[in-house]
Amino acid sequence: MICVTGAEPSARLLAERLAAHARFPLQEARLDRLEVLDDDAFALLAGRPGLVVTCRRREEGGAFRGSEHERAAVLRRALAGAPAYLDVELAADTELRRELFHARGATRLVTSSHRFEPASPQTLRELARALDAAPTDVTKLAVAVEDAAELEPLRALASERGSGRPAIRIGMGPAGIASRALYGRFGSPFTYVAAAGSRPVAPGQLDVATAEAWRVARAAELGPLALLGGAAVLRSPGPRVYNRVFSARGLGFVYLPVVTARPLEALALLERLGFAGASVTMPAKEALVPHLSALAPDARAAGAVNTVRLARGERLGSNTDVAAVAALLSEVPAGARALVLGAGGAARAAVAALGRHGAEIVLASRDRARAEALAAAVALGAGAVVDWSRRAEIDFAVLVHTTPLGSDGTTDPLGDAPRDRRDWRGRLVLDAVLSDEPTPLLARAVAGGARVCSGKEWWLRQGALQMRILTGAAFSVDELRAAWDAPEPGGASP
User: Fold this and answer.
1) Taking the CB of the first residue and of the last residue of the chain, which one, N or C, has fewer CB atoms within 10 A?
2) What is the DSSP string of 377-436?
3) Could you tell me which CATH number the domain at 229-318+475-485 has?
4) Which residue in the list 97, 169, 285, 456 is annotated as catalytic?
5) Annotated catalytic, 456?
6) 492 confidence band (pLDDT: 50, 70, 90)
């Protein structure tokens, strides 16, 4: 169940939001955000079904500027309007909470605690026990998380015996998205989402458009899939593209970004939450390899995975980047020299794909040690690694770029373009940077007469293969491309 919230400064704007989102079963009225709390504001609340009323303390992320005595008067008057829920912090006066509980009538009292810094598992258990001991109908515990692995203590609380009352548990921040989108798996009866056109009132809160695109209201019916990696997962097209296709085809899956620098712990959390699998990006592509039950041949050849299927207690690793790159480079003749920029998981996939074509591979990376380790792992031989400072001196028939350089729209991974005197005709350039516009590298190559393949085409091909592994359903590159290019609701570009 979804509860729409907002930060409206006036009763008029609050009324407009409540009307515009009336299709949702619950809406929160943040009285602490209103600049004027007058008779009109309280009249707006009275007799309105599905209303959650909050007047949050500033210490817990609210904006109420009066005294605690004044805030208590606001809460009493709000309760007189008989909202569906009244939210009062655990840190509020004990006698006030007891008074409101006994006077609540049909209103359900929510006792909440918000911590905007990460808390230890022991602290979370203590807070949960304190909330359970309070006179209340519902408890709410929201805590900041910096890594998705920190969601495990919140998830574990759902399986521990408490008071038996409904308990809302939220991991705040981008790393806590799973606790909001899969709220039921954390034991929560509903989840908060920001109203259309409103800024989130808490870190990591989804907006209405995203919640609907991800079918959050139906989360209990859907099999979750993850995009597991660093903060860059939040900028990936994956959640937008795959969730569009899932929804359009009525497939029972939802695809969520999971931010982590601790991929092994995060993968264990996904297993406990019932995820069917994950796309994998940095820093997990190589780190997870030793911890998987089995590797497909391409993953073994690359020494890296971009896909992990979770089934019957097993972790099955694949690498669909290899096949995608091999398809894009299908016209590369045997013996052609290929320069690969980078030495991470994408570079490993490119090296494995180029090896299929019998290419002569040269590596250049800002981390020479990683490049040498990759060259040794695939037996490239002496001289296969060159210093990053010499990358622009290397002649090549094929260039594969796998670093983030160029994602800012200005940086060229080969360096200073005006000094480039090479003849680009007859060369093939593949740039892994994801962009709707040509990257500086591809723009230079096209201007010089080279054939080019974009990171978008790489991503679409690996994605079609990856989704078949994770869902068992067939996907086409054209279907994913159409979902990528489709405008956002309301006509905005993706």
Assistant:
1) C
2) HTT--TT-EE-GGGGGG---SEEEE-SSTTTTSS--TT--GGG-----TT-EEEE----S
3) 3.40.50.10860
4) 285
5) no
6) very low
